[in-house]
């Protein structure tokens, strides 16, 4: 996929331009590190063109409902919102929830979203599996709330896989651990599919390797991580405990 390179480069240039002024960079970053309410913490995973290619659709394609779990500031969500009649999101951070609401997204409680009385056409779970307390439970809840035949789940995971959960100012261990075999990117992708996705009732339609860019701090303008991006659908099988 060539677009990720082009769009990632553009994203990096925007960040560099944004913080090219030293004094602006210093004071704004210091303030945001305290309250996280300004326009920081953004990330880039894919463009709308790349989303369409992943889903095998064209620009006019539109379905009813999207749910973005752990949506952050909503910038990734806004990239694809044109394809949905309703956009729902969950987010733990109060300041990020405020931003999501200002974008017009419908906010669901992070502990209650799975109790809705309707199904979602697309659910995105981008760089969240390694940062939530119960990733396996979340996958089961996603399967339950996703349209059973036409629904699709987009999962982005940073590899190598390392779990930790942010709790206030501390990082803690998750309540559910995922253990992937292998040390290489390819080995961990294989383990993620066989040991996590398939036992959770999903099958892989396709996957790709993309750069995951997020805004940095006082020490670096931005960080580049290695994402595995999956398009999953329900296999029709129930969760299997492994």
From TrEMBL:
InterPro entries attached to this UniProt entry: METL9, SAM-dependent_MTases_sf
Pfam family, one: DREV
Membrane spanning residue stretches: 22-38
Molecular function GO terms recorded: protein-L-histidine N-pros-methyltransferase activity
CDD domains per UniProt: AdoMet_MTases (cd02440)
Keywords: Membrane, Transmembrane, Transmembrane helix
Name of the featured protein: Protein-L-histidine N-pros-methyltransferase
Organism: Acropora cervicornis (Staghorn coral)
Lineage: Eukaryota, Metazoa, Cnidaria, Anthozoa, Hexacorallia
